[in-house]
């Protein structure tokens, strides 16, 4: 009991209370802790998706027969393509593709029905706007699948394929793209919020001149810095809980792993973010400068983390560099815990990397902060 009383009567606890009140009085910081993470998680979670649908389709149907209309219906029945323009002017259709009004143009020749009836190959012409190569490739894949299915409906002969695979999709049987992106966005948002809040909180002491006042107190340098870290850690863990709640309620993430393991490992990454934020504050002089510097560091972290684009699709040199990115390891941990439900025995290499980054960043930031105090 005396130990607790001495702790709550210590200089360190008084500094923690002071820092907590100072943060809560700053309405801008409180808003930064709640509003931007929520908006970013919702916006990026819904916006980042490799799925392509509602592709605009322009049709020039010279045949004007039941079979040609069935072909157009087959293309549009799953909402993968939406008929935007119907015309009998081929040049006008090509112009629509050129100007970007439609992404795909379909030309059905006059002899379409005649060739089908005679058992010949009926050729059609397709134009795809390939400025966006990813969308063009997906559109071409959709077309090939739909036309293959349409051909099977025309062919009355039933032929058994020599090989019939049975495919099972593990961990994400519904192939929901948000289940891949949202854990990455959770790490991304925590990185942006954590580094920005911690750096602005520390550097604000320089702007308002209260750092000099703290130096006049009997408190040691480690007490001053630790008193800043503890409230930030608690508040950012609140952001971790907010992200988990939004992921579960809004995006229906399964959270198959142990929640307390997720909570504890997120705490390690919060320490990484705080260490990076304090380090940025020690190399900056104003709040404006630290905000710009944080984006200089955060953008490469995000790009090389696998949060947005798969690491496997990156060049070899960037895949190697990504191992020195703490966000890459945190995103890997999140996806394994949330989607696969694995334990610490699977993600321990990533945990070790996070512990190393947390130790290095926090040690470096503490040393630089101590040098500034001296």
Structural class: mainly alpha
- Write out the strand line-up for the largest beta sheet, numbering strands in chain order: 2-1-3-4
- The whole-number mean of residue pLDDT values reads 82
What is the helix content? Answer: 55-70%
Gyration radius over CA: 29 Å
Amino- and carboxy-terminal Cα gap: 36 Å
Summary keywords:
374 residues; mainly alpha; abc type-2 transporter like fold; 2 domains; four-stranded mixed β-sheet; 15 helices; 67% helix; 6% strand; elongated
Give your account of this protein's structure.
This protein has 15 helices and four strands. The chain is mainly alpha-helical and 374 residues long. It folds into two domains: 20-48 and 177-373; 55-154, abc type-2 transporter like domain (abc type-2 transporter like fold, 3-Layer(aba) Sandwich). Strands 2-1-3-4 form a four-stranded mixed beta sheet, with helices on both faces. Helix 8 (178-208) runs antiparallel to helix 10 (221-249).
Sequence-ordered SSE layout with sheet pairings:
Blueprint: H1 2-8, H2 11-25, H3 27-47, E1 55-61, H4 66-76, E2 81-86, H5 90-99, E3 104-108, H6 112-117, E4 125-128, H7 133-154, H8 178-208, H9 210-215, H10 221-249, H11 259-282, H12 287-303, H13 316-321, H14 326-340, H15 344-373
Parallel strand pairs: 1-2, 1-3
Antiparallel strand pairs: 3-4
Helix pairs in contact: 2-10, 3-8, 3-10, 8-10, 8-11, 8-12, 8-14, 10-11, 11-14, 11-15, 14-15
């Amino acid at each position: 009991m005396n130990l607790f009383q001495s702790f709550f009567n210590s200089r360190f606890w008084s500094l923690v209370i002071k820092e907590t009140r100072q943060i809560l009085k700053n309405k801008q910081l409180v808003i930064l802790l709640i509003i931007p993470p929520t908006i970013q998680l919702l916006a990026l979670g819904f916006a980042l998706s490799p799925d392509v649908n509602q592709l605009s389709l322009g049709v020039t149907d010279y045949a004007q027969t039941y079979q040609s209309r069935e072909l157009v219906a087959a293309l549009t029945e799953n909402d993968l393509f939406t008929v935007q323009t119907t015309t009998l002017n081929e040049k006008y259709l090509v112009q629509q593709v050129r100007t970007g009004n439609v992404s795909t143009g379909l030309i059905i020749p006059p002899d379409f029905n005649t060739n089908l009836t005679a058992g010949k190959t009926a050729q059609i012409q397709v134009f795809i706007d390939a400025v966006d190569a990813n969308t063009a490739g997906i559109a071409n894949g959709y077309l090939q699948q739909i036309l293959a299915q349409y051909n099977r409906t025309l062919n009355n002969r039933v032929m058994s394929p020599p090989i019939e695979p049975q495919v099972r999709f593990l961990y994400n049987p519904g192939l929901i793209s948000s289940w891949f992106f949202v854990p990455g966005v959770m790490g991304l948002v925590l990185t942006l919020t954590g580094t920005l809040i911690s750096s602005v909180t520390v550097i604000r002491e320089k702007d308002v001149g209260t750092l000099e006042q703290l130096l006049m107190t009997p408190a040691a340098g480690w007490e001053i810095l630790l008193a800043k870290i503890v409230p930030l850690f608690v508040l950012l863990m609140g952001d971790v809980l907010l992200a988990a709640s939004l992921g579960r309620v809004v995006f229906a993430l399964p959270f198959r792993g142990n929640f307390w393991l997720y909570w504890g490992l997120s705490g390690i990454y919060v320490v990484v973010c705080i260490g990076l934020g304090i380090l940025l504050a020690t190399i900056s002089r104003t709040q404006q400068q630290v905000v710009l510097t944080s984006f200089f560091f955060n953008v490469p972290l995000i790009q090389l983390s696998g949060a947005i684009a798969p690491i496997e699709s990156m060049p070899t040199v960037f895949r190697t560099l990504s191992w020195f990115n703490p966000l890459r390891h945190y995103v890997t941990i999140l996806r394994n815990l949330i989607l696969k439900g694995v334990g610490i025995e699977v993600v321990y290499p990533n945990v070790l990397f996070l512990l190393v980054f947390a130790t290095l960043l926090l040690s470096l930031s503490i040393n630089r902060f101590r040098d500034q105090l001296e």
